[in-house]
Amino acid sequence: MNAADTPRFMQLLAETLAAYGKSLPEPAMVRAWQANLEPYPLRTVQAAMQAYQDENGEFAPVPAGIAKRCKLMDGRPGAEEAWAIALTSQDEMASVVWTTEIAEAFRICRPVLDSSGAISARKPFLEAYERIVAAARLARRPAEWVASVGWDKTRHVEVLDSAVRAGLLPAPAVAGLLAGKKDSTPDDAARAQLARIKQMQVEAAAAKETARLAAVEQQRLADIEFKRATNDRVRQIDPRAEMQAADPRQILRRAHVPGRHATNDSGPLPEVIRNQKNGSKGFK
Question: Quick one: DSSP state of residue 264?
Answer without folding.
Answer: G
